[in-house]
Amino acid sequence: MVSPFKRWMCAGETKEALGVSKGSATLIALRESHGGYTLVEISLVLALLGFLLLATGPILSRWHGQLSLESAARQVQVDLLSARDKAVLEQRTVAVAFTMNSPQYRITYSDDERTNDWRSLPGGVVIQSTSFNLSSLYYRNTFIFTTDGKSGMPTMGGTVMLRGMNGRCRYVIVSRNGRVRIDSMPPPSSEVPS
Hints:
Blueprint: H1 4-8, H2 22-33, H3 39-90, E1 94-98, E2 104-109, E3 112-120, E4 126-130, E5 142-145, E6 151-153, E7 158-163, E8 169-174, E9 180-183
Antiparallel strand pairs: 1-2, 1-5, 2-3, 4-7, 5-6, 7-8, 8-9
GO biological process, one term: protein secretion by the type II secretion system
Membrane topology: Single-pass membrane protein
Transmembrane segments: 37-60
């Protein structure tokens, strides 16, 4: 193996001409004699990496919880928008029923109520509450899109409240016209039960 020192030395130049002292030349020669890292160097690097991981662990955990909550809110939003589009395109009512304190909800079609598309939320996120049809026994916590893509039941729209492992919440808000959006605060006009 050619030493880095010899590789950069031009023809005819000496170590003294390059300003390399006898001590640094000894270090170069010492490094050339054994090509690798010592156990102490490897242990020190591993200890530093372990300390960094230990210090950043809680931050990464919070970040993962927030990411799961955002992902779950997007999933519910996309499923509600998809249900609305399916109601308009196929000219049939589509219901999205939410199960409280559970990560699951289902999508049901009016002409075939035996067909249920069950969906699960990611990463420890649960459905905390909804403001859909609270007074109805059969349609409680269910949002129904009519064939024109608007809110069938409840007629005024409503909110789904999702809670993550970190205790934070996201609100998926459906307007009476079928618009679906996500917010970190509940809408002022909705009645979201605690």
